[in-house]
Specification:
By secondary structure, the chain is an alpha+beta fold. Helix content is about 30%, strand content about 35%. The chain has five helices and eight strands. About 30% of the residues are buried.
């Protein structure tokens, strides 16, 4: 069982994953207000930094409740948030986590999300005692599906019009990663 009163800081070769704090609001707004970055996200682009502040509050509440945890993705040596990743939902009884991730457009194609998810998955399997991890992807988000597959995720299903956004219902591709898949993939990532 994880105790997030002391927030877990994760480090990789190029990244530091740290707690998302109120001063990250402008950087989150930069990401969430970009129309191209939000193309496959579940909401319209943000129009106010207050929306980013609300997101930070919701993330803090989930961590306090022990139901989910999100990290700021930062480049080593620079505390500025360039993305976020985390477990949206931790179904403890089933040892399953549901993840999401997003990174600023200027960081696309650099392997930032893949590296961050590697650390986050290690943490989930090693410290949260997860058995499986789920990721939902909007069809057409080919970069995301390729990355998940490289990490060992497998396509479990295609749910038609299962997610309501302000643009209407959208499909979801459901990917899943078992602990055993991750242990096999770790050496390849």
């Amino acid at each position: 069982m994880s105790d997030w009163r002391i927030f877990p800081r994760l480090e990789t070769t190029r990244l530091v994953l740290r707690e998302i704090i109120p001063t990250d609001a402008e950087d989150l707004f930069h990401i969430f207000s970009d129309e191209e970055t939000m193309r496959y996200w579940s909401c319209r682009p943000y129009t106010s930094v207050d929306q980013a502040r609300g997101l930070i509050e919701g993330i803090a509440e989930a961590a306090f409740a022990g139901s989910g945890i999100h990290w700021a993705i930062t480049l080593r040596g620079d505390e500025r948030l360039v993305g976020k990743c985390g477990y949206n939902e931790w179904r403890k009884a089933h040892r399953r986590g549901d993840i999401s991730y997003i990174v600023a457009r200027e960081q696309w194609g650099k392997g930032i999300v893949s590296e961050a998810l590697g650390a986050m998955l290690d943490y989930g399997f090693d410290h949260m005692n997860l058995h499986s991890v789920e990721a939902g992807v909007t069809p057409g988000n080919d970069a995301s599906t390729r990355m998940l597959q490289r990490l060992g995720f497998r396509l479990e299903g295609h749910l038609r019009e299962n997610f309501l956004t302000d643009r209407g219902f959208v499909d979801s591709l459901i990917y899943s990663l078992l602990r055993s898949d991750w242990e096999s993939a770790r050496g390849r990532v």
